[in-house]
Amino acid sequence: MVLNALPAPAAGSVRRTLSLHTIPAPEWAEGLRIAGTARDLVVGAGRSRVSATRELAVTLDARSRITDVTGEVSRPDALIGASPVSGFRAHLAGLPEPEPSSLESALLDDLPTVRLVSGYALMMEMPELARAGGRSPLIGICGGWAPGASADTRTRAGVPLLESAPPSPPLAQMLAGPGDFHPEPAMCPRSMRRRRVLDVAARPGGYDVFEYFRDSYFDPDGREGSLHEYEVHARVAGDGATLEHIEVVPHALPFPECPLVAPNAGDLAGISLAGVTTEVKARLSGTRGCTHLNDTLRFLRYVPALAATL
Question: What is the value of pTM for the model shown?
């Protein structure tokens, strides 16, 4: 079930919003154009201020190599020729810029999974690509692709994995106020969009955290459907880094097994968010996790820096 409304950012909080818009160039298997926008909004009692914004655009060729980078990028030369697949995040970590907690870093870090999820668009637009008796190399990568689960059996049967996505409300209808999310590029048919919301709100003795994640697909008629959707509710200690409690609510997901791994996020209670990427990999690997749930949880690494601004 898709989520229909997002909470308004509370007074005494900071909201980070991020979106990446992906279109085929000109077809999904021939390359991608990815436009990213992001904003940090500090919310006061009756007044809010934008503390940071970022825009960038990246073009990938058919072999997933970066061929062009434009916008507000610290080191475009260090990205040309790189490929946002395995090892790309390590490549980013080795660069002197951008600063790891920055909006630029957040946008670039999303390129590998945005590239990966574009494959769902190809599945829906060309279901005839399914082949009988096949076996996907993704088996075992996450709960949705567990051996014997729906994705595995459908792949073996040679039937389409995904033919459509459940309709999702326009983001503008989900917001409590028009300024609660940053301006995005206009929608276009045959595209994909990733959106993130991360709220960090001060409370006595610590912080409350809300996070929202959605990958959606716009079909040739411009209808938007949710592919992956999660919300996260968490409590963080007064140091701004120690995770005291976390609860994940799954919404629209491609396979019936996907939501079953959400309770496993509770294993992260007690960790330092400075090391959340490592902890997620260690505790929620393989079929105990979900590629997009893990990606949602990794985004909590920005909580300490956002908390420090309050």
Answer: 0.95
